[in-house]
Amino acid sequence: MTTSARKATRVGKTGTVAKARGTGEGTGRARADAASQASRTRRKKGGTTASGLSKERIIAAAIEQIDRNGLMGFSLRDVARSLGVYPSAVYWHVATRDDLLASVVEATMADVAPEPGKLSWQDWLRELFSRCREVIRRHPNVAQLLGGHLVANASLSPGMIDRILTVLVAAGFKDDQIVDMYNVVIATMVGFSTLEFASMPTDDPAGWAAQLQEKVSSIRALEFPTLARYLPAMANRSFIVRWQNGIDAAMDSSFRAYVETAIAGMERALARD
């Protein structure tokens, strides 16, 4: 083979190798781009991964975990385990534990506020308060989020807030009263029920209840005469002197009294102006 022929052969081989290398690199880039696009698609809000995992499924699993284990025992790892996925899969859909807890509040409270315009403002509020109490009765461990954690504010529901404000304005409250009346509504909606359905002790609840019953029954009448007088009616039916929460000892009449007192106070505030 001549020198010219050998050079031509080397050039041909080099070109073939370069072409093959270029084709491989191009294919690799294409695959990487496709994978990146797929990842972005999976992370879209409300999207579903190839495994069928979605934010809605994660929220439902989180509610189930909180109902079963309480807020203190709640973790994203347990949620992931219940769904049969790795924790990293959950993080495709929720940024943090607090983000998921806010979504839990939003989901459980989604249908609490009735549609305005069909009831008097007083009856609308009664319905609102009753619906919220029923949600907390079904999910008592969520009550801790509503009443004691600002993380619940991240579940901001413009629709619910707008409905409350719409009802207050239609009732005739003036602009300088709206903020105070709104806060009264939220406190009434959440306050009583979060206390009524407060979590029971997890460490020997039966022993704790027996100990509290004994403590209540041993209150000395001579030292605390007024308390002793009303104690038979109050025992296990009143805040502080009870050993069961609203799941086993509902406080229906007290809830109604609380609601009616709040509404009567709002009516007086409206009449003053």
TrEMBL record:
Residues 1-51 are annotated as: Disordered. InterPro entries: Homeodomain-like_sf, HTH-type_TetR-like_transc_reg, HTH_TetR, Repressor_TetR_C, Tet_transcr_reg_TetR-rel_C_sf. Residues 75-94 bind DNA. It comes from the Bacteria. Residues 52-112 form the HTH tetR-type domain. One of its GO terms (molecular function) is DNA-binding transcription factor activity. GO terms for biological process: negative regulation of DNA-templated transcription. PROSITE patterns: HTH_TETR_2. Keywords: DNA-binding, Transcription, Transcription regulation. This is TetR family transcriptional regulator. The lineage of its organism: Bacteria, Pseudomonadati, Pseudomonadota, Betaproteobacteria, Burkholderiales.
